[in-house]
Design brief:
five-stranded antiparallel sheet; globular; 172 residues; 20% helix; alpha+beta; 2 helices
Length: 172
């Protein structure tokens, strides 16, 4: 009987651990800083990096001269923007990170995004409209030598215009 209880405890612990880790991350000091910026008129856009238009078929923008993985070699950040003027575009935009140190390729898709440089790190600020009147979900993902990882999530466009942390199961 005791071994069954121990097994159930261990199983429950490992099933709930990712949720608790995400909740801790979303309440981190960095996520609190991002939330303050999202609740200001200029927001995080003042930290946006410059994008350069390319002539490639698959990707139409890049961010040159970026070293995400810290190996002093330029990593590739390729951006695809569908160009739709609709609030909810028919096709998602995407960011592809290719690390110079390993050649690994990471791609994420979202409705809209911009890349920021904040406290010596690069982040993706992704927005997804849930309807014409909102709300808007804002996800912040870090780009580093491990790839692309979501670290904060907010629900914005509430009646008072604020953004609040969003709790849900983290995407993989």
């Amino acid at each position: 009987m005791n071994s069954l209880l121990i097994r159930l405890f261990i199983l429950t612990y490992f099933l709930l651990l990712p949720l608790s880790l995400y909740a801790q991350e979303n309440n981190s000091p960095l996520c609190s800083e991002f939330q303050r910026y999202l609740n200001q008129p200029a927001g995080l856009i003042s930290y946006a990096v410059e994008e350069k238009e390319t002539q490639q078929d698959e990707f139409n923008f890049t961010i040159p001269n970026i070293d995400v993985d810290g190996d002093k070699l330029e990593d590739k950040i390729l951006l695809f923007r569908g160009g739709s003027a609709s609030i909810i575009p028919p096709d998602n935009d995407s960011v592809t990170l290719i690390l110079s140190s390993t050649g690994e390729k990471f791609t994420v898709e979202m409705q809209r995004f911009f890349i920021i440089f904040y406290k010596s790190k690069y982040y993706i600020v992704a927005t997804n409209w849930q309807g014409e009147k909102g709300p808007i979900f804002v996800d912040i993902k870090i780009m580093d030598r491990k790839g692309i990882k979501q670290i904060c999530s907010y629900k914005c466009g509430l009646k008072d215009g604020s953004c609040v942390p969003r709790q849900y199961h983290k995407e993989k």
